Amino acid sequence: MRARVGLAICLLIASLSLAEPALRAQGDCGLVAAVQPPVDTTAFRLVQRFGVPSPRHQGRYHTGEDWYGGRGTSYGQPVRAIAAGRVTYSAPTGWGRDGGVVIIEHTLPDGSVMYSQYGHMQEVSGYPFPPRYSCVRMGDVIGGVGDVRPAPHLHFEMRVSQPDVPGPGYTWADPTALGWRPPSAMLANWRGWLHPAHRWHLELRAAGAPPPTVLDDSSLVVVDGDRVRRVTPDGRVLWRLSLDRPAIGVMARAGQPVIIYADGSLQAVGLDGAPLERWALNEPLRAIFEAGSQRLAQTAAGALIGLSGDLQAVVWRLEGLPPVMRVAAAPGVIGALTADSALLILSADGRLLDRAQLREPAALAAAPDGGLLAYTRAGLWRIDAAGVWTPLLADQAPPGGAGAAALQDAQGNLILYGVTDVPALRAYRPDGTPLWTTPTPLIRGQTALFQHGALLYLVSGGGDLVTARAADGALCGQVSLHGDGRTPAWSQVGSDGILRLMVGAQIAAYDWAALGQGCG
Questions:
Q1: Phi, psi dihedral angles at 336 (to 5 degrees)
Q2: Pairing, β 85-91 against β 180-181
């Protein structure tokens, strides 16, 4: 008996040894190097977005995207793998009368794993389903659009769990909380994460999170929904705190983070995440702003207030304002742009110096001489500490306004981004003489322009990052991530040479030197 058991064990070990290379080969399908949509987006259109409630399914939320090619043209069209990966589920009857399903596992270069699901498919002539555990490459045809209700279309999902279970298509709970992700947004982000300069990224629960605060060691502290996280300079989450009330942001005080709550209370936190002192401003708040040395907040009742350096007291207030959307500050003057496109000019102690009603939002930036730059539809202006507007560049500069950006370098040269005619970066000497003009890709959403060393960089709430050489405007490169376009991006180049960018529902980090390699 013992001999038979021993023989069985030996045979089992031998069979596993023989199977091991095959299993290893099945699992080694390569890392994602590039991505593409699952269907031809010039022929198909998005007809139902991710996360929307469906009247056909009692208001449940859509776990993917539906792509439709038009009456009489969708059926049988090829569906392609979005990226290299391993097939974890493949069944022509996976959804019964609603068609077949294929699920593919994808591994990114940083080791993270996601799953793409393709539903409402069928095997049509020349387009068989790939076998389970087989490897596919980006662009491989994995099936065809099936003849399903209410019309032939592709249901496309991306998620971080359930590698071998066809998704339900709709859920009563928020699909993001259950592991699903917005497919088109994830494809856009993957392109940005596959850029050679990418170093790390951190996904947030939702777009529109308040800007993080940067601590002395280049770590970030960020409010993300009902939690606060401290992120190390290399992207690891050091600690997280669950919040018992809504927070509107975080600022630093004496090198330590302070959480600011919507009810007007503030909570200091130690570098180890331990709660410290708590105090209150005794009025609800809607937003906080940090510009230069200024720390501002707007109350729920509409007052703009200036906070002391230790965040303990209100040092000035200006009552009765619409929601403030953007703030820029120089040592002697503050500019605040409201939701109704009014530009308020304030002294450093909060006195209203001027109020200009603009046709549309303007670009605001601090000038190195202590004033402000305002790039409006009416042109480029300098605003001094007395609130006096002086036109710059006379008629040379194209109109600014929404989507424009401006800065002035240490030599007084003016650099503008505008979208009036052809999207372009333009540079001028202090006397208005043009230096260079560089057409750029179209930048989406609210933009901001910065200079770090010899390079310029332009970032937008739509997820665009463009770098250019300040001396001659030569484009060095572009990174595109997914942004909602409604909220501005936040960015900072740290002393460690890493550009950290918050846009959409993520923070992404890029090596600054690598971003400039396109300029030699």
A1: -130, 125
A2: unpaired
Is residue 323 in a domain? Answer: no
pLDDT digits (tens, 9 = 90+) for 347-367: 999 999 999 999 999 999 999
Query: Helix, strand or coil for residue 282?
Result: coil
Strand partners, 155: 66, 119
Distance of CA 132 to the CA centre of its chain: 34
Q: How far, rounded to the nearest angstrom, does the alpha carbon of residue 96 sit from its chain's CA centroid? A: 37
In a domain, 154, yes or no: yes
Cβ neighbors of 401 (< 8 A, separation 6 or more) are 358, 359, 360, 361, 362, 363, 375, 376, 377
DSSP 382-395: EE-TT--EEEESTT
Range of the domain at 54: 45-188
Task: Report the CATH number that the domain containing residue 96 is assigned in CATH.
Answer: 2.70.70.10
What's the pLDDT tens digit per position in 32-63?
Answer: 999 999 999 999 999 999 999 988 888 999 99
Q: How far apart are CA 232 and CA 359, in angstroms?
A: 42
> Cα–Cα distance between 199 and 181 in angstroms, integer?
22
Element (DSSP H or E) covering residue 171: strand 170-171
**pLDDT score at 307:** 97
Residues 6+ apart with CB under 8 A from 433: none
Number of domains in the chain: 1
**Contact, 44 vs 155, CB < 8 A?**
no
Evaluate whether residue 72 is within a structural domain: yes
- C-alpha 394/C-alpha 40 separation (Å) is 47
pLDDT of residue 418 exceeding 80, the answer is yes
- What is the pLDDT at residue 125? 79
| Closest listed residue to residue 253, CA positions, set 295, 304, 305, 289 | 295
d(CA 393, CA 433): 8
For residues 91, 107, 205, 235, the Cα torsion angle rounded to the nearest 10 degrees is 170
Q: In whole angstroms, how large is the CA radius of gyration of the chain? A: 27
- Using alpha carbons, select from 61, 264, 313, 24 the residue that is nearest to residue 167: 61
Residue 201 has pLDDT above 70, yes or no: yes
Give residue 108's pLDDT band: very low, low, confident or very high (50, 70, 90). very high
Q: Is residue 167 part of a domain?
A: yes
Backbone angles phi, psi at 9, to 5 degrees: -65, -45
Please determine, for residue 25, whether its predicted confidence score (pLDDT) is greater than 90.
no
What spatial distance separates the first Cα and last Cα of the chain, rounded to whole Å? 74
pLDDT tens digits along 460-495 = 999 999 999 999 999 999 999 999 888 889 999 999
